[in-house]
Design goal:
Helix content is about 25%, strand content about 30%. It has 8 helices and 19 strands. The strands form 3 sheets. Strands 1, 3, 4, 14, 17, 18 and 19 form a 7-stranded mixed beta sheet that branches. The chain has a 6-stranded antiparallel beta sheet with strand order 6-5-13-2-15-16, with no helix packed on it. The two termini are about 60 Å apart.
Length: about 475
């Protein structure tokens, strides 16, 4: 059996009797400094242990969120009417979606970007408009030509004024012209302007009456507007309103539309009926010339384009008069990260949130100093940033982008184009924390290191003081 004496022989910490030790004032001061140093270094090590460190790396995109990406946007066009505003998407794989409406909302705005009413609904428009076959017949003009001088007079003279805003160069206007004049003659025979006085069919040449057409927010030709005298139709801001006709343009359809407007009106005292909600060919006309488009699109993760332009299957547009100036209120990709999430993860502020909405609140205005037919293009390069924990759990996925914008003259109808391209690389931010064993090791190193260094310093100081005393004693002898 091993004796206690042998066990005591391996004691690393042999004790010195207290009466053989000597306390000193310098040793006490050094001990206090050592203790304070230990506490300070321990606090720093504890803070380092509790903190989460991040490492950033660039890797091949390994996204697991599918082949599609959501593109959120809110863009205001002060000079593009909601009546013709179209959002189109295309990509290099052959996708070509025109006039997307399912996930898009439109609101009429004025030149100061203020909304002028509720959401604009264009309704179900005819994909093919019938113009009839009146080209071979002799043309007898029956509609009244209006100008800025007599426009308001006629509108206040007749309870119903159906006005065709046209341009002589327009293909669709020339198709409409025979049917329009024939319908005007038939309406004139049925409702004599002198005897009946309930309706008038008129026309306005927008190449001659530019200001008049601009005042009525005419952007596509032909535009058939129904004006009602009085205050029977009001928009949400209590301004006088009117309607647009989107139906077939053959003589029979035009006459039927006008009869439907006139019949509810009594001859005396010309009491107007309210808007016919069941007539799908009559829709509320925009009260202003601007439009705010908001919503989202699901786009493929390949190079593609989001384009906003004026589009219609039965209207022509004067490209020299189109102004695609816009203000990007918001534009981002992927799921939106709430501000509260960023607030909770302040440690990620240097890595996230700086470029996910790079174009927000930026204006791109064409002041006509660079000429007409101007397309405004934006080139967006998108990079995915992913934050993961050390155990592989994904905390945040964010798509950030850089943006470069330019203007270009177009031979065709000007558009606002957003070209996007995703990078094949992604930024990976990995969060990691120190292990508890590493923390304990460092704490022991701090305590032992400070204690040892303090002991060495105390020994040096003590030996120095002893030597100095011996020298003094030697001098006195």
């Amino acid at each position: 059996m091993i004796s206690p004496r042998k066990i005591k022989s391996v004691d690393f910490y042999r004790k010195i009797p207290r009466d053989l030790t000597e306390a000193s004032l310098s040793g006490a001061g050094l001990s206090i400094v050592a203790a304070l140093s230990m506490l300070l270094l321990f606090g720093m090590e504890l803070s380092s242990y509790l903190a989460v460190s991040t490492t950033t790396s660039i890797i091949i995109d390994r996204s697991s969120d599918g082949d599609f990406l959501r593109m959120y946007f809110n863009i205001s066009f002060p000079s593009l009417s909601c009546e013709f505003a179209s959002v189109d998407v295309s990509d290099v794989l052959g996708t070509n979606r025109l006039n997307v409406t399912k996930t898009i909302r439109k609101f009429s705005i004025d030149s100061n970007l203020r909304p002028t009413g509720s959401e604009f609904h264009s309704g179900e428009l005819l994909s093919h408009v019938n113009h009839g076959d009146e080209s071979g017949e002799e043309l007898v003009e029956g509609s009244v030509s209006l100008s800025a001088r007599n426009f308001d007079t006629f509108l206040h003279q007749y309870p119903i004024s159906v006005v065709n805003f046209y341009a002589p160069w327009c293909y669709w206007c020339n198709l409409l012209k025979p049917s329009w004049e024939k319908a005007a003659n038939q309406i004139k025979e049925r409702y004599d302007p002198e005897m009946d006085g309930r309706v008038i069919l008129a026309k306005v040449d927008c190449t001659q009456e530019v200001d008049l057409c601009r005042r009525n927010h005419i952007q596509g030709y032909p535009s058939i507007r129904i004006f009602r005298k009085g205050s029977d139709l009001k928009d949400d801001n209590a301004h006088h309103d009117h309607e647009s006709y989107y139906g077939d343009r053959d003589t029979e359809s035009l006459v039927k539309m006008v009869i439907g407007l006139v019949e509810p009106i009594h001859l005396e005292p010309h009491k107007l009926a309210l808007e016919d909600k069941t007539n799908k060919t009559l829709k509320k006309a925009p009260s202003t010339g601007g439009c705010r488009i908001e919503g989202y699109m699901r786009v493929k993760k390949v190079p593609g384009n989001l384009m906003v332009s004026a589009r219609s299957e039965s209207h022509s547009f004067d490209s020299s008069q189109m102004n695609m100036s816009h203000v990007v209120n918001h534009l981002s990709f992927g799921h939106r990260i709430l501000p509260e999430t960023f607030a909770d993860l302040k440690r990620l502020a240097p890595y996230l949130g700086g470029s996910y909405n790079r174009l927000d609140d930026r204006s791109f205005i064409n002041q006509h100093d660079i000429g007409p037919n101007v397309t405004i293009e934006h080139y967006l390069q998108i990079v995915k940033t992913e934050v993961v924990k050390s155990n592989g759990h994904v905390m945040i996925e964010e798509y950030e982008y850089t943006a470069h914008s330019s203007v270009a003259h177009s031979y065709y109808l000007p558009v606002a184009k957003f070209h996007f391209e995703l990078s094949p690389m992604q930024v990976l931010i990995t969060e990691s924390s120190k292990s508890f064993s590493h923390f304990i090791t460092n704490v022991c190193a701090i305590i032992g290191g400070v204690f040892t260094v303090a002991g060495i310093l105390d020994s040096i100081f003590h030996q120095t003081m002893t030597l100095m005393k011996k020298i003094e004693l030697g001098k006195n002898f």
